[in-house]
């Protein structure tokens, strides 16, 4: 089998401070920008590559193309006015922002959310996770030149968005999880239509197994490529499927159950290889877990009950002084909201902890040297990062 | 890598024969039933409270005047205009809407080359304004409180045995919860005759900043303790919260502020009047209008003397309103603050008897007439002349003075206003003390849905044992051979006003009833006793249907004489307070004008 063995004698030497001595004037090295507009990059960020031949010797991640200052905007809005903003922090999986923010406010305000709302929130989050994985499965195929998966997954995501639309009233920014509960009940016949979507998804995913996971090209380009040493998980704050692919069976849904996850039956998917293949595989299996969870939720959730707790008048809602951190397991890892209230009607500080921040900015930079240029896209996609949540 | 892994991917070529999954014409695809599309507004239901504008985090909503929509009680006349360059379709405006008028259609495509078109008024603009599908909130609003916080009050069995105050007032905790429901739309401010800054003082309750609250109250009303108990609270009838739930208990919150600030602190917070300006004003009548004018004039440095014919100051607040609704010490505190501003009140001093009008005119720079309505009117039906028929105001005054009043076992009250309720409930208490039973029948021209009395008065009267017969017109006070009253004969009322809107009751004579009782009390309205004016002045003044004619600024036709209160306008304490402020301003303007002339 072909093996890539670069000529290390060509490599730049490291100076006393450990920095590489790269002199572009020599003509040995080339600067190459992958992004911000590049099909091999996820969202609006870029990687500045220094290549020697087709091997990358250095990669610097750049963000800042998408900075909207949300965390600061939130400090200038009342607690209810923050609600329409939070979902925009992360475009492909916005619901986690809604949940974490609502739960943080409820925690500080001492509000007990009705049972029905807890089930509904779990449903929404799993639907969002499903959609997020569709983006991943489409993206990882695309990064390696397998365009068809992107088309199929976009279709699956689209029919799940139809369910989002009828349930929440919107396709992308659902704005359904309000502090205090959720905005409504299940529409009539929702379960049946959801089942159709899940059936279709399972059929398409079987084809994904054939076209991607049983594909010699995909295997060759992903197995053993982009290995993350599990020893790096802790210092780099690696969580979610990226860590589970390295044998760490950590999943907040299991480890510190929130909402109604303690009443649901599911297993944590893990893998041992910690390469692109393993990470893709874990996510492929996790889609199935989400599909099963959605079915369980729809079966087990109460049919009626209040969707909202009694909350004070939101127009002058003052949240008691305090701070809290609410976290959950999103499709990329640990997602959390740190909320500080000084007792006024405005949040003193909101910090969004998104897994992409560590995965895409620090870890990626660490992993790039030594890879082939053509693998950078797959490496980045395999970390499943969403730049919007890096730049709040 | 086996051959299988090379060939397997090709099996998905079968999908070449699948139908395409893309939607052929996505532009025409309708949004879901709950889709948060373009805004709709039911223009008749909308009250222009502006809550949508307040909650919008994008500042996409402006409240704008609309042609054909006039401001009226409980409606600002404004309607939301939405800028789709800013809107994010979060629908918080729909959720927070106080009436449920704002909804969304499921329409989501709109193409126009003119960017200004996207600043539009839902309910007027847009082809989707009558669409049925689209987002509307589930059930009642949940973003602000719907139910009023209950105030503790005495049970009917307990309260009928005494003249103690019925309601207990809110605790701090209850008041904060009730104040929390207010959305600060300010519709109430426009409705309140004195334009009290209601949302601001409710905010002070929320913050438990009672000093600020009290200062706000005194900016517009020196009778906040009285109004906090007995105001007709028209503000609450225009409250945005009443469209889906209970209106905010504005009156009780006002009372709560007063209850929380000790008397001495009140005077401290209001501060002392400005330096004397050398002007002197005489005010006739120590009711709410007269004393409010006195308060304002005194604070502006004018020397004020109030002449009161009765033994105590307060006017109808003391002699008309029973103690169980307004304890006398509460009234005394309000009057005490006014006296602390340097106002001199001469009680038991009747103008025309103890002091002459001409003297007042000569010794003062201006005279304000605020004499109220203290003469009860009569129905003048046969039998009303003679013993056993009383006027409600006379009886109420005698009860306040502690005089002994005749208390029969069974009596009939004529009238459906608050005064009728006051006398019925006062007599009920006296009957209970004397006989252990209540025997009162109340008849009124109006049907129960159109009673002039406050609804809670009607409810509480009934709870206390008063039997109410609505739509009954008095025809005769029945008397026996000795001339003693035996009851009241009534006919059923078909209509009260004629086609031109004039008072002309029509009766169904076949529906006759005799209400037994040995006393009949008439509570159908009052008139002013203007005998104090003297013949010459009465002759000189201009009159309007029995009342002294005044202009918008409460000037009479005599340049030195001003008039305010029930005697010229009415009908309640808060209107009298508003009039008091207005007449004081007019008097001060008059002084300024005279100074310029000199």
Automatic annotation (TrEMBL), chain A:
GO MF term list: NAD binding; oxidoreductase activity, acting on NAD(P)H; quinone binding
Subcellular location: Cell membrane
One Gene Ontology cellular component: plasma membrane
SUPFAM superfamilies: HydB/Nqo4-like
Protein name: NADH-quinone oxidoreductase subunit D
Family recorded in the similarity comment: Belongs to the complex I 49 kDa subunit family.
Residues covered by the NADH-quinone oxidoreductase subunit D domain: 152-313, 317-392
Database matches in PROSITE patterns: COMPLEX1_49K
Species, as recorded: Aliiruegeria lutimaris
UniProt keyword list: Membrane, NAD, Quinone, Translocase, Transmembrane, Transmembrane helix, Transport, Ubiquinone
Coiled coil feature spans: none
TrEMBL record, chain B:
Keywords linked to the UniProt accession: Iron, Iron-sulfur, Metal-binding
Residues annotated as domain 4Fe-4S ferredoxin-type: 37-66, 78-107, 173-201
Gene Ontology molecular function: iron-sulfur cluster binding; metal ion binding; oxidoreductase activity
UniProt entry tagged with the keyword 4Fe-4S: no
Keyword field contains Metal-binding: yes
Pfam short name (any one): Pyr_redox_2
Name of the protein in question: Glutamate synthase (NADPH/NADH) small chain
Organism, as annotated: Aliiruegeria lutimaris
């Amino acid at each position: 089998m072909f093996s890539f063995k670069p000529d290390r004698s060509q490599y730049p030497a490291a100076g006393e401070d450990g920095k590489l001595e790269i002199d572009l004037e020599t003509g040995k090295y080339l600067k190459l920008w992958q992004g911000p507009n590049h099909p091999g990059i996820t969202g609006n960020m870029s990687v500045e590559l220094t290549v020697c031949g087709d091997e990358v010797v250095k990669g610097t991640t750049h963000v800042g193309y998408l900075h909207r200052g949300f965390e600061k905007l939130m400090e200038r809005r009342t607690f209810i006015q923050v609600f329409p903003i939070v979902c925009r922090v992360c475009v492909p999986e916005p619901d986690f922002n809604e949940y974490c923010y609502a739960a943080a406010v409820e925690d500080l305000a001492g509000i007990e959310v009705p049972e029905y709302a807890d089930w509904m929130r779990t449903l929404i989050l799993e639907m969002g996770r499903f959609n997020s994985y569709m983006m991943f499965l489409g993206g990882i195929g695309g990064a390696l030149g397998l365009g068809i998966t992107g088309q199929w997954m976009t279709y699956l995501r689209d029919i799940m968005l139809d369910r989002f639309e009828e349930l929440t009233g919107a396709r992308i920014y659902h704005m359904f999880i309000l502090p205090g509960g959720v905005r409504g009940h299940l529409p009539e016949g929702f379960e049946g239509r959801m089942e159709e979507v899940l059936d279709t998804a399972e059929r398409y995913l079987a084809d994904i197994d054939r076209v991607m996971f049983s594909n010699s090209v995909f295997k060759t380009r992903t197995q053993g490529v982009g290995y993350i040493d599990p020893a790096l998980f802790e210092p780099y704050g690696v969580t979610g499927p990226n860590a589970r692919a390295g044998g760490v069976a950590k999943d907040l849904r299991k480890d510190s159950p929130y909402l109604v996850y303690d009443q649901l039956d599911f297993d944590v998917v893990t893998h041992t290889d910690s390469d692109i293949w393993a990470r893709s595989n874990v996510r492929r299996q996790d889609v199935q877990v989400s599909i099963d969870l959605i079915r369980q939720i729809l079966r087990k959730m109460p049919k009626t009950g209040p969707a909202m707790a009694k909350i004070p008048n939101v127009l002058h809602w003052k949240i008691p002084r305090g701070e809290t951190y609410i976290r959950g397991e999103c499709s990329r890892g640990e997602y959390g909201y740190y909320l500080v209230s000084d007792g006024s009607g405005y949040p003193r500080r909101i910090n969004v902890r998104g897994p992409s921040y560590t995965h895409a900015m620090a870890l990626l930079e660490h992993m790039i040297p030594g890879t082939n240029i053509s693998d950078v896209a797959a490496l980045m996609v395999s970390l499943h990062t969403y730049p919007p949540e890096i730049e709040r | 890598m086996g051959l299988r892994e090379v060939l397997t991917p090709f099996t998905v070529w079968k999908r070449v024969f699948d139908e395409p999954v893309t939607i052929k014409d996505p532009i025409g695809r309708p949004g879901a039933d709950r889709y948060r599309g373009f805004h709709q507004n039911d223009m008749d239901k909308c009250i222009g409270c502006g809550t949508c504008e307040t909650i919008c985090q994008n500042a996409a909503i402006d409240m704008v005047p609309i042609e054909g929509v006039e401001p009226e009680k409980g409606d600002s006349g404004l309607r939301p205009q939405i800028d789709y360059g800013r809107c994010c379709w979060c629908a918080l405006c729909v959720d927070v809407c106080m009436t449920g008028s704002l909804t969304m259609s499921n329409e989501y495509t709109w193409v126009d080359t003119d960017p200004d078109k996207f600043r539009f008024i839902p309910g007027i603009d847009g082809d989707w304004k009558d669409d049925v599908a689209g987002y509307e909130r589930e059930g009642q609003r949940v973003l602000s409180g719907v139910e009023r916080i209950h105030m503790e009050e005495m049970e009917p069995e307990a309260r009928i045995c005494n003249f103690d105050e019925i309601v207990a007032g809110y605790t701090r905790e209850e008041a904060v919860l009730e104040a929390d429901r207010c959305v600060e739309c300010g519709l109430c401010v426009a409705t309140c005759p004195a334009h009290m800054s209601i949302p601001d003082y409710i905010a002070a309750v929320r913050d438990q900043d009672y000093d600020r609250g009290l200062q706000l109250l005194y900016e517009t009303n020196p009778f906040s303790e009285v109004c906090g108990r007995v105001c007709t609270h028209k503000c609450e009838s225009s409250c945005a919260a009443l469209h889906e739930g209970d209106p905010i208990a504005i009156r009780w919150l006002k009372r709560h502020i007063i209850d929380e600030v000790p008397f001495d602190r009140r005077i401290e917070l209001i501060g002392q009047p400005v330096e004397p300006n050398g002007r002197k004003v005489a005010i006739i009548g120590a009711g709410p209008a007269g004393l409010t004018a006195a308060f304002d004039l005194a604070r502006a440095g004018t020397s004020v003397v109030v002449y009161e014919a009765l033994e105590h100051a307060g006017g109808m607040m003391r002699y008309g309103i029973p103690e169980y609704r307004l304890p006398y010490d509460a009234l005394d505190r309000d009057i005490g603050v006014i006296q602390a501003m340097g106002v001199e009140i001469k009680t038991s001093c009747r103008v025309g008897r103890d002091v002459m009008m001409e003297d007042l005119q000569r010794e003062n720079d201006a005279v304000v007439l605020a004499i109220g309505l203290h003469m009860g009117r009569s129905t003048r039906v046969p039998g009303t002349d003679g013993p056993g028929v009383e006027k409600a105001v006379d009886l109420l005054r005698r009860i306040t003075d502690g005089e002994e009043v005749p208390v029969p076992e069974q009596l009939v009250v004529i009238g459906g206003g608050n005064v009728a309720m006051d006398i019925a409930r006062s007599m009920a208490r006296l009957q209970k003390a004397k006989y252990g039973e209540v025997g009162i029948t109340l008849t009124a021209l109006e049907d129960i849905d159109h009673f002039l009395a406050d609804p809670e008065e009607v409810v509480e009267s009934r709870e206390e044992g008063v039997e109410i017969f609505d739509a009954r017109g008095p025809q005769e006070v029945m008397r026996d051979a000795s001339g003693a009253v035996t009851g009241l004969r009534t006919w059923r009322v078909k209509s009260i006003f004629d086609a031109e809107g004039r008072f002309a009751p029509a009766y169904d004579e076949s529906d006759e009833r005799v209400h037994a009782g040995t006393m009949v009390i008439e509570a159908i309205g009052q008139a002013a006793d203007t005998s104090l004016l003297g013949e010459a002045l009465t002759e000189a003044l201009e009159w309007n249907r029995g009342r002294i004619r005044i202009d918008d600024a409460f000037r009479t036709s005599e340049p030195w004489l001003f008039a305010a209160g029930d005697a010229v306008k009415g009908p309640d304490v808060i209107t009298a307070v508003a009039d008091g402020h207005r007449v004081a301003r007019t008097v001060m303007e008059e002084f300024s004008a005279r100074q310029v002339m000199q």
